[in-house]
Design brief:
By secondary structure, the chain is an alpha+beta fold. Helices cover about 20% and strands about 30% of the residues. A hairpin with a 2-residue loop joins β8 and β9.
């Protein structure tokens, strides 16, 4: 009897141990994979920026932190919209008006740097129509299907405009399925050297005369009165049309005149390894009335200046166009600034939440803080890229495109962090050079590109204009602390 009891106890002991092991396994198995990942690797060193370790519902990604440290960040595969941070002041308090006193004369004299923009040929708050014409010539025959390429590019234009305008602007784009043959020879046309140079008999057609010649061809098939502009995309073989022509004007045509955009994309539209839609959007933004080209400084943080990084639009330009919604901007005047932490949405991502922090410094100056990511509208960023940029807007300054970007030549400038030394990002980029005769060489090269001290990584701070800006925590979004220093 006792023996049986002892045997029974032993059996129960083994069962208890087995049950404990099974329970432990089940508990571990039932833990969210992110929790397991966090326990093992989050915050630990990694080797290659952008490297990922995938789990069912999350992943680890190797990213930079302060001091050049590379560590694993834990991220979920699903990104939800955010509730916007409550702004101390209406965003309109930070929407400073243009205050240029001595306007420079030039192509940019008619475009705007602040709200409200002076509309050019497109309406930033309404519907528009445009015509895309893939055009070839007897001596420069087009090959392939322009419809196939344009279908993809036009879809991107529609998506971009719908998201960044908050549905407030649209463009209906029409285009033919095949090449439209010009009555001119490509060898009789040129987009170089000086679009403003008067055309004398015997010269090749360029500038306004070039656009008018091409419009005469289009007018045979299309009713130009239905459109606010025509964008020509020449065949690759048209070597004399390597450069772009971007004119908003009144053009003479055989049937009268046409007022609108007359644009010629360089002949590389159907060949170049680039986002054609992004160049076109940039041109459309000019036609909406924006000056663009600031902040720039060859930094890849927006479609206003480059197409080799983020292809979103910064919130200042969004606001200038009247596209901003309540909740998009955390606005505060410097004298009212109290220490606060705001969670930002990257401008390259389609996600609701606070898009920008703006700190009004004076009647003409405002600091703008924005987040950046490799996402839908920033796929030319390296995998694993993130960061926070800060730029200063001065509405009393007009862009001077003849001079290098600086506080005195651009209405907006990114601010460099002098307390860090991260060096330049080595990346693949497009380059081109043009000689005095207009001959262009181009290609792709991997080399040091832009200075990373213009962005903040996690735990880094920037002090400027009496404000301290700190990237406190980063993941899918950035939590930014702002506080006064004086």
């Amino acid at each position: 009897m006792c023996q049986n009891i002892l045997v029974n106890h032993s059996s129960r002991s083994r069962s208890s141990k087995l049950l404990a092991v099974i329970t432990s396994i089940l508990l571990v198995a039932s833990l969210p994979d992110a929790a397991v990942a966090n326990e093992k690797k989050v915050g630990k060193s990694c080797n290659k920026i952008g490297e990922r370790i995938n789990f069912k519902e999350s992943y680890l990604e190797c990213r930079w932190k302060s001091q050049g440290e590379k560590v694993y960040f834990s991220l979920t595969k699903k990104v939800d919209d955010l509730i916007p941070s409550t702004s101390p002041e209406p965003y309109t308090n930070c929407r400073l008006p243009e205050a240029i006193k001595n306007r420079l004369d030039g192509w940019n004299s008619y475009v705007s740097i602040a709200y409200p923009v002076v509309k050019s040929t497109l309406d930033p708050l309404g519907s528009n129509t445009y015509l895309f014409i893939p055009i070839d010539f007897k001596d420069a025959v087009g090959v392939g299907s322009p419809e196939k390429m344009l279908r993809t590019e036009v879809k991107k234009i529609y998506e971009w405009l719908d998201w960044y305008s908050n549905g407030k602007a649209s463009i209906q784009i029409d285009y033919p399925k095949t090449w439209l043959r010009s009555s001119k020879l490509a060898s009789d046309l040129t987009t170089w050297p000086d679009l403003a140079k008067p055309i004398s008999p015997g010269d090749k057609l360029s500038g306004i005369s070039l656009v008018e010649a091409l419009l005469a061809d289009v007018e045979q098939t299309y009713d130009l009165t239905k459109y606010q502009g025509v964008y020509f995309l020449p065949s690759l073989a048209a070597k004399s049309l390597e450069h772009g022509v971007f004119l908003n004007n009144t053009f003479n045509t055989p049937k009268g005149s046409f007022t609108g955009g007359g644009y010629v994309y360089g002949n590389s539209a159907f060949e170049r390894e680039e986002f054609v839609w992004a160049f076109i959007i940039h041109d459309f933004l000019h036609s909406f009335g924006l000056a663009l080209h600031a902040p720039g400084q060859e930094l890849p943080f927006g479609i206003q200046d480059t197409t080799f990084g983020g292809l979103g639009i910064n919130e200042w330009d969004t606001m200038s166009l009247g596209w901003t919604n309540d909740g998009d901007v955390y606005c505060v005047s410097k004298e009212n600034l109290k220490t606060a932490e705001i969670q930002l949405v990257p401008i390259e991502r389609e996600q609701k939440g606070t898009q920008s922090i703006m700190i009004k410094l004076s009647d003409t100056q405002v600091l703008v803080i924005e987040s950046h990511r490799r996402d839908k509208w920033g796929m030319k960023f390296l995998p694993g890229f993130y960061g926070v940029s800060t730029y200063l807007v001065d509405t009393s300054v007009q862009n001077d495109p003849t001079k290098p970007a600086s506080k005195s030549t651009r209405f907006a400038n990114y601010i460099k962090n002098t307390q860090t030394n991260k060096g330049r990002l080595v990346n693949r980029r497009y380059w081109q050079e043009t000689d005095a005769k207009g001959n262009r060489k181009s290609g792709w090269v991997t080399q040091p590109t832009w200075d990373m001290d213009y962005i903040l990584f996690e735990n880094e701070s920037l002090v400027t204009n009496g404000v301290k800006i700190t990237l406190k925590k980063s993941g899918h979004n950035d939590i930014v602390r702002i506080e006064r220093t004086k």
